[in-house]
Automatic annotation (TrEMBL):
Cellular compartments annotated: Endoplasmic reticulum membrane
Protein name: Cytochrome P450 4A11
InterPro entries: Cyt_P450, Cyt_P450_CS, Cyt_P450_E_grp-I, Cyt_P450_sf, Cytochrome_P450_Monoox
Primary localisation category: endoplasmic reticulum
The family this protein is said to belong to: Belongs to the cytochrome P450 family.
Organism (species): Galeopterus variegatus (Malayan flying lemur)
Annotated TM spans: 12-32
Superkingdom in the source lineage: Eukaryota
Keywords: Endoplasmic reticulum, Heme, Iron, Membrane, Metal-binding, Monooxygenase, Oxidoreductase, Transmembrane, Transmembrane helix
Amino acid sequence: MSVSVLSPSRLLGGISGLLQVACLLGLFLLLLKAAQLYLHRRGLLRALKQFPSPPSHWLFGHNQEFQKDQELQWTMKWVQKLPSAFPHWLWGTKVRMLLYDPDYIKMVLGRSDPKSNGSYRFLAPWIGQGLLLLDGQTWFQHRRMLTPAFHYDILKPYVGLMANSVRVMLDKLEELIGQDSPVEIFQHVSLMTLDTIMKCAFSHQGSIQLDRNSQSYIQAIGDLNNLVFCRIRNAFHQNDTIYRLTPAGRWAHRACQIAHQHTDQVIKLRKAHLREEGELEKVRRRRHLDFLDILLFTKTENGSSLPDEDLRAEVDTFMFAGHDTTASSISWILYALAKNPKHQQKCREEIQSLLGDGAPITWDHLDQMPYTTMCIKEALRLYPPVPSVGRELSKPITFPDGRSLPKGTIVVLYIYALHHNPKVWPNPEVFDPSRFAPSSARHSHAFLPFSGGSRNCIGKQFAMIELKVAVALTLLRFKLLPDPTRVPTPLPTVVLKSKNGIHLHLRKLL
Ligand code: HEM
């Protein structure tokens, strides 16, 4: 009996044959990929053989070594044991070198390696290609364009604006402390620093601290900090398309939308306002150009205005970098002073001698609070608001002790670990402002809250002014005490946060 060409059994046989071929091909590709990953891992192990590593799993890296949220404690344990640097394996083929030796860090900051693509690219959907993420010639042009926005003459009048924002926050806190319960200060400080950057850099009229929309912006920035931190550490979340499909990816997308709504609104309002105000020269004669004016009036080399995308990226970058870092620093400084009442009182006496008669704080006062400045620096050492920065080596590097790393290595300049490194800072966990006494000496790269080299923080003077104003006015109004039942747990997200908030008791001074 003849069998037709299209008979079901022939068809099934054909399909199963095809399936077998597809399976074999799949298996072959899988083996090829596994061999590729194996060789890649071997190459990495060979390249880093001069640097002993904490024990790690071949597939899960160091993730099994510590509980989630315990990464900082785990890192510090190994900083004590391994000199200068060690590899942190995120998973089988992903490793970053953690550096915490001032000589090592000095060498890296003296070069011009780009920001590491592995972590900074996850910030791009949020803050775009602004100053923080740019590299090369475009970075240089933007840095040159924006530097005048932080000139001494521009910063001077900010003291009054900052003091107003701090006063609004302190009034709010005063209303909250009716009962003897502690206050979680991070959220209040964040709204205050957002208010400050909005007033100083974006000449915003009105109070952000009393506006509900600002709270959703602050919430979105907090979420994005956590989401970026987790994404860097998750092998399955590296691919953009896959990440977008995950709950975390959708959450990040929504948070970015909220953040962008806030910045879009700022740009839209200013463009409308400038149309009313008229030409640049007229505006310049009437008032100082603020950060946003500079961006809007800038002409690129071919004479055209800054493209909208670049403008948005810079606004998003400065809005985030200009408020979240200062919120972190002020909150941790107040916590450090609450834990160290003698130093707190010494700062208060210094400030009372300047402002005790109710005089408003001015630019000239800022240089007359040496002890408070020492305490601020010591708190920035213990709680660096930016816990780490990353670079991708564009050429090999050999450190002073002779050990080297090849081109392409991701290095993390671990500022938190540098600041807690017992070889650099004896008794690193002790709050001791005398480390910053004018007579004390230290390595040029032992204290780097604002990083260093050409990519240092463009806003560091702005930040230091804000920290002094906020600390001075807070200590004049309140005595600060820690809440022993809720000790904050530092969490090294993009900005140093506390896993459980920062709770303080505030006692109004008479
Ligand atoms: C206490 C507060 C602050 C701290 C601790 C801090 C820290 C830092 C650090 C460590 C970097 C280097 C980042 C890297 O290499 O990836 C940086 C860069 C930067 N910071 Fe700050 N910052 C603070 C406040 C500010 C403020 C107030 C602004 C703006 C008003 C600002 C704007 C920037 C920008 C735009 C960059 C990128 C600079 C560049 O790459 O050229 N920061 N900051």
